[in-house]
Specification:
alpha+beta; six-stranded mixed β-sheet; single chain; 22 strands
């Protein structure tokens, strides 16, 4: 039985797992490791510690399907609609730029439900808090080491974490990346920002005419969303949740500051936009060091194969673009590269 490891439980990694399971006829041991405490990557949904039904999307807010991908990836959208994972975005988002033919969708159970859907479809063993540190060659297999736990051996490894984290890996992998590949990988760049989730008591009302708003005049805040309203799931029994995304310049400037200090600065600026908000009963501040790809790897669309026997491949938005369709395109490219080696 082939042993396959996918590193990263974000959208590309979870979809790779689901596609590999569907496309592989023979028996397959499939596991997904992620260094975070739950699935989603930059499609993460935080939950209030007081009520797990009160949630806030701290990563992607909604999914935009462009005409370019509408037909190419139609089956993926159809599947997520059929399972109730996606539905049309009908709530008002002020300042949203709409291009001709674009369609916007939200995930009613939170954006992490997309990755959770694919992980469930894959039947993979999913292990969280698994930070990969080294990848070494060992008798035609990959020996993968992590911060906690013993090393394990795999026939095939797929890396879907942000590119700078791939370049930080120790062991034989560092020597297997060619000078040309290293140059391509080192040229990949990302924007940085923070997201803050605020959770309120049931019965609290945020009286504004929008569910989301792009802010253009604030040095700190770029986007505000009333998350339950955005998803059309307002309830008298579940308190509202508010999500604030910062500007990229603010994120870059405060990247190494403490989460507590950054949260305080965001709350001060939020008071200028929505004055008089009551104290939230819980908060969650998320640093996105690798928020969105600003420069993808050149001349290797969708994936980069680092080694053939045993097979080692990289994928993710660092090889395409930071949106749903970019991750789907990468997962399809990884599948195409991998399927002859299982």
């Amino acid at each position: 039985m082939a042993r396959v490891l996918i590193v990263g439980a974000g959208l590309t990694g979870s979809l790779c797992a689901a596609l590999l399971r569907r496309e592989t006829a023979g028996p397959l041991y499939l596991t997904v490791w992620d260094k975070a405490a739950d699935a989603g990557g930059r499609m993460t949904t935080a939950r209030s510690p007081h009520n797990s039904q009160c949630t806030a999307d701290l990563g992607a807010q909604y999914i935009t399907c462009t005409p370019q991908y509408a037909k190419k990836h139609q089956s993926f959208y159809d599947e997520l609609f059929a399972h109730g994972v996606l539905k049309p975005l009908t709530s008002p988002i002020e300042g949203m730029v709409m291009r001709e033919g674009d369609c916007n969708f939200v995930a009613p159970q939170g954006v992490s439900s997309i990755t959770e859907h694919y992980l469930k479809q894959s039947g993979a063993e999913v292990c969280f808090r698994q930070c990969v540190t080294q990848i070494n060659l060992s008798s035609d297999k990959w020996e993968v080491s992590r911060e906690v736990g013993s090393p394990e051996q795999f026939d095939l490894v797929v890396l879907t974490m942000p590119v700078p984290q791939i370049l930080q890996l120790q062991g034989d992998i560092a020597n297997l990346i060619s000078a040309c590949q290293r140059q391509q990988l080192e040229a990949v760049s990302y924007s940085s920002r923070y997201a803050l989730g605020l959770f309120y008591e049931a019965g609290m009302k945020i009286d504004v005419p929008w569910a989301g708003q792009y802010i253009t005049s604030n040095p700190c805040v770029r986007f505000v969303s009333i998350d339950n309203k955005k998803r059309n799931i307002e309830s008298s029994e579940i308190g509202p949740s508010l999500v604030i995304h910062t500007t990229v310049p603010f994120g870059v400037t405060h990247l190494e500051h403490s989460i507590e200090d950054v949260q305080e600065l965001i709350l001060q600026q939020l008071d200028n936009i929505l004055p008089g908000l009551p104290q939230p009963i819980a908060t969650k501040c998320q640093k996105w060091r690798y928020s969105q790809v600003t420069n993808a790897a050149a001349n290797c669309p969708g994936q980069m194969t680092l080694h053939l026997k045993p097979f080692l491949v990289c994928g993710g938005d660092g090889f395409t673009q930071s949106n749903f369709d970019g991750c789907v395109a990468s997962a399809l490219c990884v599948l195409e590269a991998v399927k002859n080696y299982i």
